[in-house]
Amino acid sequence: MELNSVLLTTSASIGFFKLVNCGFGKLPIPESASRNEWKWRNICTSFAHSMITGIWAVLCFFRHPQMAEDLIGTHSVFSHALVSVSIGYFIYDFFDMAFNQKMNQSWELLVHHMVVISCFGIAVLTGCYVGFAVVALLVEINSVFLHLRQMLRMANKAVGDFYRVNSMVNLGTYVVFRINTLAWMTRWLVLNRDNIPLFSYTVGSIGLAIMTAMNIVLFYRLLRSDFLKNSTATPSEGSEKSGSGEGRKEM
Fold first, then answer.
1. Whether the predicted pLDDT of 225 surpasses 60
2. CB half-sphere exposure, 95, CA atoms < 13 A
3. Separation CA 66–CA 71 (nearest Å)
4. Separation of alpha carbons 105 and 109, rounded Å
C-alpha cells in the first residue's frame, strides 16, 4: 500500500470507530453504567475493535499462510490494511481517553497506545514486519473476553455462571494469546536480530518489554480479582472507579 492509501485507511478507521462509539451511545445503557456513560461507550467500542481485528488477524494467516514463514518481508494487502485500521483505532482511543479520563486512570493505556502506534507505524510505512504486527494483533482474541468482563462488571452482572465462564475463558485466552504470543514474539525478535536494522530492533525490544511488564501486572490483577479474592459483595461500578487497577480500562 502507498502512503496515501495508508493515510486514507487510517483516517477512515478513526472516523469509523468514532461512529461506532456514537452508535453505542444511542443504544440502551445499563442503569449501573449510566453513571459513567463515557466509559461504557469506550469499552463497547474497544470490544467491537477486538472482535473485528481478532477475527481479521486469524483470516490473514488463513488466507496468506506463507506470511507465517516470513514475518519481515511477506504480507498481503489484506494484512497491511488490518494494521492500518488498528493504528486508526488506537489513535482514536488515545485521544478519547486523553480528553475524557483522568491521567492517573489512563496513563498506562496511553503509554500502551503510543508504543503500539509507533511499532505498527514502522510496519505500515516501511512495508516490513507487517506479519509480526499481525501476530501481535492475535492478542485481540483475548481482548474480546477482557472487555466483555468489564462490561459485565459495569452492568452489575459480575455474578452467576456466565460471568464465571467468561472469567475462566478470559484467563485461558490470556495465557494463550497474550503471554504466549508475547513470549514467542520476544524469542523471534532475538533469533532474527541479525536481519533487523538496529533502530527497528531497539523500538521492537523496548515495546515488547513494556507490553510484557504491563500484561504481567494485568494478569495478576485479573487473577486476584476473579479467583483469589473472597468477597460476598457484588462488584459494582462504584468499586471499579475507586482508583485501583480494576478502575482502569483493560487492554
1. yes
2. 9
3. 9
4. 9
3-state secondary structure labels for all residues of 145-165 = HHHHHHHHHHCCCCCCHHHHH
Q: Residue 184: which residues within 8 A CB-CB, separation 6 or more?
A: 135
> How many Cβ atoms are within 10 Å of 151's Cβ, its own excluded?
17
For residue 219, give the amino acid letter.
F
| CA separation, residue 28 to residues 2, 18, 32, 37 (Å) | 41, 18, 12, 11
Cell numbers at residue 109, please?
Answer: 493505556
Say if CB 173 and CB 142 are below 8 A apart.
Answer: yes
Longest CA span, the chain: 56
Return phi, psi of residue 129, to 5°.
65, 15
Joined grid coordinates for residue 85: 485500521
pLDDT tens per residue, range 2-47: 788 999 999 999 999 999 999 999 999 999 999 999 999 999 999 9
Please provide the distance, in angstroms rounded to a whole number, between the alpha carbons at the two ends of the chain.
28
- The C-alpha atoms of residue 140 and residue 138 are separated, in whole angstroms, by 5
